[in-house]
Amino acid sequence: MRRDSLAKKYMNAVDTNVLIYAHDPRDPVKRATALSLINSLIDGVLLWQAACEFLWVSRKLEPLGYTQTQAWSEIHRLRLVWTPIRPDWQVLDKAQQLLANYSLSYWDALIIAACLEGGVTCLYSEDFTGYSHIEGLQLINPFATP
């Protein structure tokens, strides 16, 4: 992580599921929510893991007309408007600590660790039921009904 170059005080990141829902026509409500969130984040962070997972998982949208060319274009677009964060060894160390202290999957611990090490203050994801905060990182399910 280049923590010193990430000077924004409040940075937001989205998990892979938000990126996928933005391009999945099967649930128009989630799609609209995801698109609205993505388009509103002026201080967004593009996590390496979320970008890689999006490219992989988006292949499931091909039968629905969403091509890999479109997926790659979306990642290139987000790289230009959001701060990209790539992992380093501290992320792996932090993920190990999170796994020891919380009931998380390996991949969820890794994405939370990337957020914590990168200075992200809020992660939007539907994957963290039971947690609203982990070590100062706010976890928000943008699809939850109030």
Largest sheet entry: 6 strands, mixed
Q: Roughly how many Å apart are the termini? A: 35 Å
Decide which structural class fits the backbone.
alpha/beta
CATH fold annotation:
Rossmann fold
How many separate structural domains? 1
Q: What fraction of the residues are assigned to beta strands by DSSP?
A: 5-15%
User: What low-confidence regions span 5 or more consecutive residues with pLDDT below 50?
Assistant: 1-8
- Average pLDDT, rounded to a whole number, is 92
Shape: globular
Round the Cα radius of gyration to an integer and report it: 15 Å
Largest sheet strand order = 3-2-1-4-6-5
Give the count of helical stretches.
6
How helix-rich are the residues, as a percent range? 40-55%
Question: What is the CATH homology-level superfamily?
Answer: 5'-nuclease
The CATH architecture would be 3-Layer(aba) Sandwich
Helix/strand order: EHHEHHEHHEEE
Q: What is the CATH C-level name?
A: Alpha Beta
Number of beta strands: 6
Brief rundown of the structure:
By secondary structure, the chain is of the alpha/beta class. It has helices at 16-21, 28-40, 48-57, 68-81, 89-101, 106-118, and strands at 12-14, 44-47, 83-85, 122-124, 133-134, 137-140. Strands 3-2-1-4-6-5 form a six-stranded mixed beta sheet, sandwiched between helices.
